[in-house]
C-alpha cells in the first residue's frame, strides 16, 4: 500500500509503485487537471509540485513520492502564489487551447517561490521546458511578471 | 437605449427557426466561469419547457436569465466560443456574465458550416478560419430574434409599447413606468410567441461589446485544471485502449502473442484492429488505466506481415518530386504569355524549394471515446468535423447518422488534425470499440494515442517541391512567373485534374505580374495520407512566393517593402496592412546594434489567406557562429471587423510561434518507417525562442474574416528574408535548423 | 589514421609471429587444474537464481550474446572492428546452431582458451579474462546455459578483411598477447578482496573495456583500468587514483554506481556501462558488490591517458537554483538555450536532477571531460538503463540537433556543470554521428 499526500489529503494506492504519478492522478485519483503531453518529461504538461519542487509527473513513479507533499493544479488557488498566477493568467488572457496551462502554472509557481522578482532570463530558464503549442509564451511571460508584481505589493 | 433602424434586416431562415437540443447529452457547456455543465443539468432544463426559451438553434434563455449560446464549432484554442458569446451578448444587450457557451450536438440539419458549405463541404465542422465569418450574420440574427421576442414578451406582460422599452446589461427597462426586470422574467411569455420573420441587427456604431474586451469564456476553467478535454473523460465501465501500430506503415498483423500483456494486472482485453482506408490499425490493449494499457501494448509480441508495408524513404520521395518538377504538369492557372527569354536589362530567378512533411503535434495527442450501444453510438471527442465523423461512423456501423451522438469537448489544440477528411482517428477508435465489444466489453472505450503514436500515425502536412522561374523586366516589373508545385492532395483528384489547395498562394499570386503559369503534379499514389494543417497550402507556398519577391526586389535594387507595396497595386488591403506593419516596425530605420559579432536585420512578408491579410516584419540577430535568433516580430492584420481584438492578437502571436517551429521541424520516412517520435526529435518552439510580438489591427468596418490560421504564413519567409539580408542568399530547403553556414 | 594503424598492426603481428610460436610451449599453463578459489555462491545469493545463472550474469554473457531485439543468449550481435565485423555466437543449447552438441571440454576450451568449434576465436570474446575462471565455474555456467530453451539461430558469418579472416592467425596473437593463467588468490589480501578481484577480472572482465590497448589490441598491463575510449564512449579510469580514478569516491558511491548504476554526487552509468549494470552488476549479491568495491580500492593508481579530473563543486552550479541558472559564461548562450528547453526539465541547473537521481549531473565524469566524448554520445543517441525494474532513459537528439547544436550544448554543459572549457566541435560530433551509424 502506497501512502500519498495530495493537496493536503491522505490518499492510498494499492497498485504498482512504478506507475507514473501522472497516471495515478488522472486515472486512479480522478484528478485530470494534470495533463499528459509527451510521457518523456520533455513538454511539462504534467508538472506538479513535490515538496515545492516542480516535477514532471509522467516520469515520477508513484512509489517514489510517498511521504512527500504533492500539489496539483487543483490546489493552486489555495496557494498565495498559485492564486496570484491564476489571476494574472486570467488578466492576461493567456490560455488558448489551454491544455498545457496547468503545467505552466505549476512550473511558474515554483519559479515565484524562488524569487518574486524574476528577470526575463529567469523566466526563460525556468519555463522553456514547458511547451505551449499555441505559443502563448509572450502572455505567459507577461502574466508571470504581473503575478510577481502583485506578490511584491 | 434607442435603437437605430438603419441596421441590416434579415429574413430568418427555416434552419434558424428549428429548435430543440438532444436531451440526455453530456455536452460541453461553459459559462463565463468556464466550467463544464453536465448533461443532467441541461436535460432537466430541457424537460421543463416553460422554463426555457429557445427561439432558435443557437440561443437559449432560461428563467434565471442565463443565456446559453450554442456553438456549432469546436473550441480548440482559437477563441470561437468567446467570439460567438460576444456576438450574441452584444446583439441581446446582455451582460457578459450571464452568457455561457454550450457545444452543439452533431446535426447537419441545424449546424452546417455556411462557409464550408459554400466551398462544397456541406458539413458541420470547424475549419478554414470560418467561424466568425459564418457567425457574423447567423449568430447576430439569432440573438436579434431572441431579443425582439423578449421585448415583445415584456411589452405584453407590462402592457406597454415595445418601442418604449430599452435593454441594458441583460435587463429590460420601461423608462416611463420605471419598470425593470431581467430576461428570465419574460421567458415564460416569450415561449408562447412566434419567432419574428424579419429581424434587424445592430449597426456597428451601436456595438457595446463587439470590438471591445470580452473575457474569454474558457479561460477560468483553463487556469485551474477544470476544463474537460477528451483525454479527461472517464465514464462508467470505460476502458482505455492503447494501440500498437505497425512500425512499417501499412503492415498487417500476422499473429500476436498477447500472453505477457494479459499477465499484467489490469489488462483486460487485447484486440486485433484491422486497418481502415485511413488508419493503420494493429493490436490494441484495453485496461482501466492508461499506463497499464501502455505497459500491455509494449508487452505484445507481434509478428507483422510486412508484405504490404511501405518501403519508401523521404529521400526517394523528394527525388521523385524533383524529377516531376522538371516535367510540365496539369495547369491550375494560365494568364498571359510566359517569357522564355530574359529581356534586355532584366533578371531571372530560377529556384527549387523543398519543404518537408510536418506533424500537427497538438499538445493533446489524438484520442476519442466511443461507446457502442444497442441503439447507436455515442462519441466524446474534441470534435472538429462533426457531421462528417458522424456520417463516417454511421456508415461503418450500418446505422443512421441520427443514431450517432457526438458530445463535443475542448480540444487541446488541433491545428486541423481533428478534422480528418476520412475520420481516421475516430474510425480507429470505433474499430477498437467494436473489436472489444465482440470480446464482451459493453462499456465505452477511450482510445489514447501516446505522443509517439500521435507523431507516427500519418496524416502529415504534405511535403512539397516547388519550382519557380520568375522573369523580371528591366523596369523591375515581373514579366512572367512560372510556378510548378509537386505534392499530394487531401482528396482524390481525377487523372489530369488539379488540387486548388496545393497551389493556393500561387494561383492567386497577388503581385502585379505580366504572365502567370501555375501547374502541378500530384503524387497521390504513395500511400502516405496527408492532411491540412493550420494555414494549409499557404504554409508552403508563401515560403516560395514571399522569398522570391524579396529576391526580385534585391535584384532590381528596390527596397523589399516598397517594391511589394508597388506591385500590390491591385490589392489595396494588402498594401494597407503591409504599410501598417512596416510603419510600426520602423522599416527603413536602423536597428539597434547587437552584441559583438552579431549582425541584425529585418525581413518582411505578407499574405492574404482565408480572407484575412497579415503582414509581418521580423527582426533577426545572426550570431558569429551562424546561429540566429528572432528577436521581435511586428504584425499587422486586416480581418475585417475585429470582434474580439484581444483574441485576434492572441491568434497572431500564436500563429507566429507556430510558423517559427517550421524552421526546425520535419517528419522523415526511412524504409517505410517514420523516424520521429516525440518532442526530442520533433522540436517545437519554446519560451526562450519566442520573439517579442507586437500586433496591430487594421481598422475596418468590413464583415469579419477568420484569424485562426492567417498569422502563420508570413513568419517563415519574413525570417528567411531577414537572413538573406545578412548572408545574401535565400534558404530554399526547410527545415533550416537554428543556424546557417557562414562559410 | 585507421589505415596506418592497420599496417602497423600487421607489421607487428608478422614480427611477433615467429617468436610467438617458440614461446608457445612455456606460456601455456601446465600442471593440474588449480582448485577453484571459492565455493562459488555468495552467502547472500539472490533468491530464485541458480549458481550457474548467477555466474553467467556476473560474467555478463548475455550482453554480447544477444542481438538487438533478439532472444537472450541466441547470439547474432555484430561487433564492428576496424578490420571487419564478427558476430557473437548462439549460447542456447540448440544442437545445430548453439552449444547443444559442444562437449564440456570443448565449452571450457572455448571460454578459457578462445578456441571454438570453428577454430580460434577473436578476442572480442574476453577469453583473455575468462582464462582466470575455474573449470568448475565454467561448467556451472554451461549447466545453466543447457537449461535454456534451444533457439535455432545461425550465427552470421564474420566478415573480415584479409589477413584477419584467417582464424589460425589468432594463434600468433595469442602467443604474443595471451597468457592463459588461472586466477590465483593473493594470500596477503583478505578473502573479500580476493573475491572482488575474481569477480572483476575473471568474471566481470572489467579490464577489457577500461584498460587501454596496445598496438596489437591487447590490454596494456601497466595502465590496468586507467580508462580508454570504447565504441565511441569513454570507459573511465577506475583505478584508485584520487584525481583521475575513483579513489576519491566513497564506498557508498562506488557501490551505488556498480549495483544500481548511480553514484550519488558522482556519475551515473550510461551507454555501454549502463548495459553492464543492467545485465550483470545489479544481479550480484550485496556481499559481492562490497567485494568488488574492496578490490577496487586495491587497484594500483594510474593516471592513464585521456584522464579526467572532476570538479565536484563547480562555481556555476553553486550559483544556480533548480530553476535559475547562475554564473554562466555568455559565450555558451546557444547551448544554454537548448539546455533550457530540452534538458533542464530533468537535469535542472543546480546539478541535482529531478524525477530521477540519474538526471543529476554534478560530479559526473562525462560533464567534466573536456573532450566531451561520452557527452556527445549521450546527446546524440541517448541512454537507457533498467535497474530493479525501473526504466530510466534519456532520449537522443541526433535527429533534431545539428552537429553545431550538439557541440553547443556539450560545451555549455561542460562549462556549467564541470567548470571546464569544452573542446567539442561540429566535426567531432559528425565523427561520432557517423561512427554510431557504422556501428548500427
TrEMBL record, chain A:
<dbReference type="InterPro" id="IPR051452">
    <property type="entry name" value="Diverse_Oxidoreductases"/>
</dbReference>
<keyword id="KW-0001">2Fe-2S</keyword>
<dbReference type="GO" id="GO:0016491">
    <property type="term" value="F:oxidoreductase activity"/>
</dbReference>
<dbReference type="InterPro" id="IPR012675">
    <property type="entry name" value="Beta-grasp_dom_sf"/>
</dbReference>
<feature type="domain" description="2Fe-2S ferredoxin-type">
    <location>
        <begin position="1"/>
        <end position="76"/>
    </location>
</feature>
<dbReference type="InterPro" id="IPR036010">
    <property type="entry name" value="2Fe-2S_ferredoxin-like_sf"/>
</dbReference>
<keyword id="KW-0411">Iron-sulfur</keyword>
<dbReference type="InterPro" id="IPR001041">
    <property type="entry name" value="2Fe-2S_ferredoxin-type"/>
</dbReference>
<dbReference type="InterPro" id="IPR036884">
    <property type="entry name" value="2Fe-2S-bd_dom_sf"/>
</dbReference>
<protein>
    <submittedName>
        <fullName>Oxidoreductase</fullName>
    </submittedName>
</protein>
<dbReference type="InterPro" id="IPR006058">
    <property type="entry name" value="2Fe2S_fd_BS"/>
</dbReference>
<keyword id="KW-0560">Oxidoreductase</keyword>
<dbReference type="InterPro" id="IPR002888">
    <property type="entry name" value="2Fe-2S-bd"/>
</dbReference>
<dbReference type="GO" id="GO:0051537">
    <property type="term" value="F:2 iron, 2 sulfur cluster binding"/>
</dbReference>
<dbReference type="Pfam" id="PF01799">
    <property type="entry name" value="Fer2_2"/>
</dbReference>
Automatic annotation (TrEMBL), chain B:
<dbReference type="InterPro" id="IPR012368">
    <property type="entry name" value="OxRdtase_Mopterin-bd_su_IorB"/>
</dbReference>
<dbReference type="InterPro" id="IPR006311">
    <property type="entry name" value="TAT_signal"/>
</dbReference>
<dbReference type="InterPro" id="IPR000674">
    <property type="entry name" value="Ald_Oxase/Xan_DH_a/b"/>
</dbReference>
<dbReference type="Pfam" id="PF02738">
    <property type="entry name" value="MoCoBD_1"/>
</dbReference>
<dbReference type="InterPro" id="IPR037165">
    <property type="entry name" value="AldOxase/xan_DH_Mopterin-bd_sf"/>
</dbReference>
<protein>
    <submittedName>
        <fullName>Exported oxidoreductase subunit</fullName>
    </submittedName>
</protein>
<dbReference type="GO" id="GO:0016491">
    <property type="term" value="F:oxidoreductase activity"/>
</dbReference>
<dbReference type="InterPro" id="IPR046867">
    <property type="entry name" value="AldOxase/xan_DH_MoCoBD2"/>
</dbReference>
<dbReference type="Pfam" id="PF20256">
    <property type="entry name" value="MoCoBD_2"/>
</dbReference>
<dbReference type="InterPro" id="IPR052516">
    <property type="entry name" value="N-heterocyclic_Hydroxylase"/>
</dbReference>
<feature type="domain" description="Aldehyde oxidase/xanthine dehydrogenase a/b hammerhead">
    <location>
        <begin position="224"/>
        <end position="308"/>
    </location>
</feature>
<dbReference type="InterPro" id="IPR008274">
    <property type="entry name" value="AldOxase/xan_DH_MoCoBD1"/>
</dbReference>
From TrEMBL, chain C:
<keyword id="KW-0472">Membrane</keyword>
<feature type="domain" description="Cytochrome c">
    <location>
        <begin position="191"/>
        <end position="300"/>
    </location>
</feature>
<dbReference type="GO" id="GO:0016614">
    <property type="term" value="F:oxidoreductase activity, acting on CH-OH group of donors"/>
</dbReference>
<feature type="binding site" description="covalent">
    <location>
        <position position="61"/>
    </location>
    <ligand>
        <name>heme c 1</name>
    </ligand>
</feature>
<feature type="domain" description="Cytochrome c">
    <location>
        <begin position="330"/>
        <end position="417"/>
    </location>
</feature>
<feature type="binding site" description="covalent">
    <location>
        <position position="64"/>
    </location>
    <ligand>
        <name>heme c 1</name>
    </ligand>
</feature>
<feature type="binding site" description="axial binding residue">
    <location>
        <position position="210"/>
    </location>
    <ligand>
        <name>heme c 2</name>
    </ligand>
</feature>
<feature type="binding site" description="covalent">
    <location>
        <position position="209"/>
    </location>
    <ligand>
        <name>heme c 2</name>
    </ligand>
</feature>
<keyword id="KW-0349">Heme</keyword>
<dbReference type="InterPro" id="IPR051459">
    <property type="entry name" value="Cytochrome_c-type_DH"/>
</dbReference>
<keyword id="KW-0408">Iron</keyword>
<feature type="binding site" description="axial binding residue">
    <location>
        <position position="347"/>
    </location>
    <ligand>
        <name>heme c 3</name>
    </ligand>
</feature>
<keyword id="KW-1003">Cell membrane</keyword>
<feature type="domain" description="Cytochrome c">
    <location>
        <begin position="47"/>
        <end position="149"/>
    </location>
</feature>
<keyword id="KW-0677">Repeat</keyword>
Amino acid at each position: 500500500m502506497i501512502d500519498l499526500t495530495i493537496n493536503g489529503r491522505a490518499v492510498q494506492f494499492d497498485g504498482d509503485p512504478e506507475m507514473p504519478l501522472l497516471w495515478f492522478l488522472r486515472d486512479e485519483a480522478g484528478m485530470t487537471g494534470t495533463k499528459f503531453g509527451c510521457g518523456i518529461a520533455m513538454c511539462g504538461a504534467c508538472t506538479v509540485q513535490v515538496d515545492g519542487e516542480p516535477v514532471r509527473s509522467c516520469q515520477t513513479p508513484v512509489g517514489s513520492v510517498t511521504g512527500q507533499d504533492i500539489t496539483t493544479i487543483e490546489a493552486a488557488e489555495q496557494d498565495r502564489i498559485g492564486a496570484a498566477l491564476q489571476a494574472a493568467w486570467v488578466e492576461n488572457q493567456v490560455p488558448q487551447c489551454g491544455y498545457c496551462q496547468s503545467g505552466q502554472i505549476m512550473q511558474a509557481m515554483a519559479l515565484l517561490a524562488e524569487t518574486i522578482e524574476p528577470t526575463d532570463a529567469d523566466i526563460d530558464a525556468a519555463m522553456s521546458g514547458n511547451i505551449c503549442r499555441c505559443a502563448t509564451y509572450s502572455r505567459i511571460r507577461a502574466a508571470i511578471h504581473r503575478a510577481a508584481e502583485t506578490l511584491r505589493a | 437605449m434607442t435603437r437605430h433602424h438603419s441596421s441590416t434586416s434579415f429574413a430568418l431562415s427555416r434552419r434558424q427557426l428549428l429548435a430543440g437540443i438532444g436531451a440526455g447529452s453530456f455536452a460541453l457547456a461553459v459559462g463565463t466561469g468556464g466550467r463544464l455543465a453536465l448533461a443532467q443539468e441541461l436535460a432537466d432544463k430541457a424537460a421543463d419547457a416553460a422554463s426555457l426559451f429557445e427561439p432558435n438553434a443557437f440561443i437559449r434563455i432560461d428563467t434565471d436569465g442565463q443565456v446559453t449560446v450554442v456553438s456549432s464549432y469546436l473550441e480548440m484554442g482559437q477563441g470561437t466560443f468567446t467570439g460567438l458569446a460576444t456576438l450574441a451578448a452584444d446583439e441581446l444587450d446582455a451582460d457578459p456574465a450571464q452568457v455561457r457557451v454550450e457545444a452543439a450536438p452533431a446535426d447537419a440539419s441545424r449546424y452546417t458550416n455556411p462557409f464550408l458549405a459554400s466551398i462544397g463541404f456541406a458539413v458541420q465542422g470547424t475549419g478554414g478560419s470560418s467561424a466568425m465569418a459564418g457567425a457574423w450574420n447567423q449568430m447576430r440574427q439569432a440573438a436579434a430574434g431572441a431579443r425582439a421576442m423578449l421585448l415583445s414578451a415584456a411589452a405584453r406582460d407590462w402592457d406597454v409599447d415595445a418601442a418604449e422599452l430599452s435593454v441594458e446589461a441583460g435587463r429590460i427597462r420601461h423608462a416611463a413606468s420605471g419598470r425593470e426586470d431581467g430576461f428570465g422574467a419574460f421567458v415564460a411569455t416569450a415561449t408562447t410567441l412566434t419567432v419574428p420573420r424579419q429581424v434587424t441587427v445592430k449597426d456597428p456604431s451601436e456595438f457595446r461589446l463587439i470590438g471591445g474586451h470580452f473575457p474569454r469564456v474558457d479561460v477560468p476553467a483553463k487556469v485551474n485544471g477544470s476544463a474537460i478535454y477528451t483525454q479527461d473523460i472517464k465514464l462508467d465501465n470505460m476502458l482505455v485502449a492503447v494501440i500498437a501500430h505497425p512500425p512499417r506503415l501499412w503492415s498487417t498483423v500476422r499473429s500476436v502473442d498477447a500472453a505477457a500483456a494479459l499477465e499484467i494486472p489490469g489488462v483486460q482485453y487485447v484486440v486485433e484492429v484491422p486497418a481502415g482506408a485511413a488508419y493503420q490499425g494493429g493490436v490494441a490493449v484495453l485496461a482501466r488505466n492508461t499506463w497499464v494499457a501502455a505497459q500491455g501494448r509494449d508487452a505484445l509480441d507481434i509478428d507483422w506481415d510486412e508484405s504490404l508495408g511501405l518501403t519508401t524513404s523521404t529521400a526517394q520521395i523528394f527525388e521523385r518530386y524533383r524529377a516531376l518538377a522538371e516535367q510540365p504538369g496539369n495547369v491550375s492557372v494560365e494568364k498571359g504569355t510566359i517569357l522564355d527569354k530574359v529581356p534586355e536589362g532584366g533578371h531571372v530567378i530560377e529556384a527549387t524549394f523543398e519543404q518537408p512533411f510536418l506533424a500537427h503535434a497538438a499538445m493533446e495527442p489524438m484520442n476519442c471515446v466511443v461507446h457502442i450501444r444497442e441503439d447507436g453510438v455515442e462519441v466524446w471527442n474534441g470534435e472538429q468535423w462533426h457531421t462528417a465523423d458522424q456520417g463516417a461512423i454511421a456508415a461503418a456501423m450500418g446505422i443512421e447518422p441520427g443514431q450517432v451522438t457526438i458530445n463535443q469537448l475542448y480540444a487541446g489544440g488541433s491545428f486541423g488534425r481533428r478534422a480528418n477528411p476520412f475520420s481516421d482517428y475516430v474510425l480507429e477508435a470505433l474499430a477498437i470499440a467494436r473489436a472489444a465489444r465482440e470480446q464482451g466489453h459493453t462499456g465505452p472505450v477511450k482510445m489514447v494515442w501516446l505522443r509517439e503514436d500521435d507523431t507516427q500515425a500519418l496524416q502529415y502536412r504534405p511535403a512539397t517541391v516547388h519550382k519557380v522561374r520568375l522573369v523580371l523586366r528591366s523596369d523591375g516589373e515581373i514579366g512572367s512567373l512560372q510556378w510548378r508545385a509537386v505534392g499530394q492532395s487531401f482528396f482524390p483528384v481525377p487523372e489530369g485534374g488539379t488540387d486548388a489547395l496545393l497551389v493556393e498562394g500561387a494561383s492567386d499570386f497577388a503581385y502585379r505580374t505580366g504572365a502567370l503559369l501555375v501547374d502541378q503534379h500530384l503524387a497521390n499514389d504513395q500511400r502516405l495520407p496527408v492532411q491540412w494543417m493550420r494555414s494549409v497550402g499557404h504554409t508552403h507556398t508563401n515560403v516560395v512566393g514571399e522569398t522570391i519577391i524579396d529576391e526580385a526586389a534585391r535584384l532590381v535594387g528596390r527596397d523589399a517593402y516598397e517594391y511589394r507595396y508597388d506591385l500590390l497595386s491591385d490589392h489595396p488591403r494588402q498594401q494597407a496592412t503591409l504599410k501598417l506593419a512596416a510603419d510600426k516596425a520602423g522599416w527603413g530605420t536602423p536597428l539597434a546594434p547587437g552584441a559583438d559579432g552579431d549582425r541584425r536585420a529585418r525581413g518582411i512578408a505578407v499574405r492574404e489567406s482565408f480572407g484575412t491579410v497579415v503582414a509581418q516584419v521580423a527582426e533577426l540577430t545572426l550570431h558569429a557562429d551562424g546561429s540566429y535568433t528572432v528577436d521581435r516580430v511586428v504584425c499587422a492584420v486586416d480581418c475585417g471587423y475585429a470582434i474580439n481584438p484581444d483574441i485576434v492578437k492572441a491568434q497572431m502571436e500564436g500563429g507566429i510561434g507556430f510558423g517559427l517551429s517550421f524552421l526546425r521541424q520535419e517528419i522523415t520516412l526511412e524504409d517505410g518507417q517514420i523516424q520521429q517520435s516525440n518532442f526530442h526529435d520533433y522540436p517545437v518552439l519554446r519560451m526562450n525562442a519566442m520573439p517579442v510580438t507586437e500586433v496591430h489591427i487594421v481598422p475596418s468596418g468590413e464583415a469579419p474574416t477568420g484569424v485562426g490560421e492567417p498569422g502563420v504564413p508570413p513568419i517563415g519567409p519574413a525570417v528567411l528574408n531577414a537572413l538573406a539580408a545578412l548572408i545574401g542568399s535565400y534558404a530554399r530547403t526547410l527545415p533550416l535548423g537554428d543556424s546557417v553556414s557562414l562559410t | 589514421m585507421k589505415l596506418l594503424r592497420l599496417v602497423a598492426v600487421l607489421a607487428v603481428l608478422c614480427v611477433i609471429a615467429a617468436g610467438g610460436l617458440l614461446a608457445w610451449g612455456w606460456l601455456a599453463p601446465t600442471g593440474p587444474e588449480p582448485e577453484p578459489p571459492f565455493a562459488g555462491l555468495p552467502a547472500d545469493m539472490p533468491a530464485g537464481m541458480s549458481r550457474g545463472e548467477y555466474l553467467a550474469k556476473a560474467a555478463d554473457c548475455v550482453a554480447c550474446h544477444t542481438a538487438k531485439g533478439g532472444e537472450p543468449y541466441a547470439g547474432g550481435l555484430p561487433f564492428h572492428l576496424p578490420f571487419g565485423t564478427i558476430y557473437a555466437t548462439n549460447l542456447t543449447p540448440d544442437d545445430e546452431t548453439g552449444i547443444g552438441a559442444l562437449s564440456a571440454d570443448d565449452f571450457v576450451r572455448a571460454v578459457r582458451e578462445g578456441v571454438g568449434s570453428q577454430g580460434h576465436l577473436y578476442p572480442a570474446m574476453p577469453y583473455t579474462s575468462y582464462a582466470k575462471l575455474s573449470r568448475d565455474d565454467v561448467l556451472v555456467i554451461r549447466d545453466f546455459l543447457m537449461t535454456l530453451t534451444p533457439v535455432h539461430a545461425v550465427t552470421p558469418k564474420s566478415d573480415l578483411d584479409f589477413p584477419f579472416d584467417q582464424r589460425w592467425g589468432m594463434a600468433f596473437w595469442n602467443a604474443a598477447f595471451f597468457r592463459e593463467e588461472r586466477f590465483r588468490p593473493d594470500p596477503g589480501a583478505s578473502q573479500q578482496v580476493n573475491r572482488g578481484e575474481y569477480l572483476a577480472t575473471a568474471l566481470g572482465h572489467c579490464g577489457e573495456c577500461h584498460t587501454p590497448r596496445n598496438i596489437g589490441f591487447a590490454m596494456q598491463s601497466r595502465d590496468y583500468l586507467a580508462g580508454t575510449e570504447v565504441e565511441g564512449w569513454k570507459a573511465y579510469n577506475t583505478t584508485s587514483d584520487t584525481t583521475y580514478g575513483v579513489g576519491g569516491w566513497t564506498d557508498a558511491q562506488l557501490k551505488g554506481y556498480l549495483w544500481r548504476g548511480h553514484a550519488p554526487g558522482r556519475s551515473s552509468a550510461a551507454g555501454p556501462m549502463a548495459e553492464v549494470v543492467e545485465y550483470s552488476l545489479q544481479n550480484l549479491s550485496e556481499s559481492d558488490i562490497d567485494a568488488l568495491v574492496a578490490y577496487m580500492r586495491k587497484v594500483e593508481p594510474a593516471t592513464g591517458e585521456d584522464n579526467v579530473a572532476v570538479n565536484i563543486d563547480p562555481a556555476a552550479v553553486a550559483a544556480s537554483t533548480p530553476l535559475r541558472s547562475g554564473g554562466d559564461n555568455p559565450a555558451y548562450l546557444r547551448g544554454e538555450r537548448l539546455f533550457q528547453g530540452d534538458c533542464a526539465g530533468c537535469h535542472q541547473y543546480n546539478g541535482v536532477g529531478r524525477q530521477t537521481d540519474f538526471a543529476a549531473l554534478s560530479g559526473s565524469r562525462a560533464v567534466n571531460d573536456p573532450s566531451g566524448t561520452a557527452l556527445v554520445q549521450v546527446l546524440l543517441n541517448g541512454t537507457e538503463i533498467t535497474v530493479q525494474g525501473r526504466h530510466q532513459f534519456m532520449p537522443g537528439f541526433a535527429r533534431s540537433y545539428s552537429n553545431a547544436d550538439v557541440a553547443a550544448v556539450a560545451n555549455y554543459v561542460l562549462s556549467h556543470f564541470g567548470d571546464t572549457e569544452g573542446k567539442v566541435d561540429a566535426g567531432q560530433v559528425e565523427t561520432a554521428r557517423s561512427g554510431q551509424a557504422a556501428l548500427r
